[in-house]
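Notes from the 1:1 (GR / supervisor)

We went over the backlog. Supervisor wanted to see one worked example end to end before approving the batch request, so GR pasted a single chain during the call. The sequence is below; no edits were made to it. Supervisor asked that the structure be written out right there so they could see what the output format looks like.
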Amino acid sequence: MTPSGETVADRAAPGPDVLRDKVAVVTGAAGGLGRAISRRLHAAGARLALVDLDEASLAGAAAEFGEEAATFVVDLSDDEQTEALPGRVRAQLGGLDVLVNNAGVRQIAPILDLTPKEWRHTLDVDLTAPFVLSRAAIPGMIEQGRGKIVNIASITGELAFADRSAYCVAKAGIIMLTKTITLEFAARGIWCNAIGPGVVETPMTRAYFESPAMRESIERNAPMKRWAQPEEIAGPVAFLCGPESDYVNGTTLFVDGGWNSAKTY
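Structure output shown during the call:
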């Protein structure tokens, strides 16, 4: 028996409508990975609350979903804006069932060149915002009987990458935040899991693959000898948002072509 009173047998069989009538929040929805995640959740039947700072790009991302998506322009480095978001989503869409903390920034610089301001901004967006947003969303999820949170972590939460200290620390924090949310709230109907992507080709990262050193590193370290496309991350995210993952909680699923298996860089 689940906290909402239903049994596993009561749940709909896996299929394209497993998220029908559910409201899913996706942060960083205007980016390449955010758009892919949004498409996959929409295909599963969810109504979307698309969140980003870039208003024009956000409108473009929402256009393909028509009335099944609402947009929310939010600066996730602002605690007040972030904390208010779940209430705004519920007021406009009538609920909040799924939260995907996808938005992220990163600075590529050696530690001695990275400023404290840049460090704080990375942690504000990549780690503090998921904490603030989850903290604000969880009470309503508990009240309605269930809710799912999926955090986008990274293999850099497990493996140290040079010139990305703030990003690595933030993603390591996301992995631990995922575990602690589960520890405190799993018995009250909350699921919290993370996805740890490897190298993914998006508009933000596409220039990386022009570097022979980056290509060589991927071929050397990833057993599958290639990087991922956003759709290959969106599928596992959708799995963790749906009923098929109802006995998965507090875990980080690495979707990295096997890179984390070798523990090298």
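Supervisor's comment: The longest strand covers residues 190-197.
Batch request approved.
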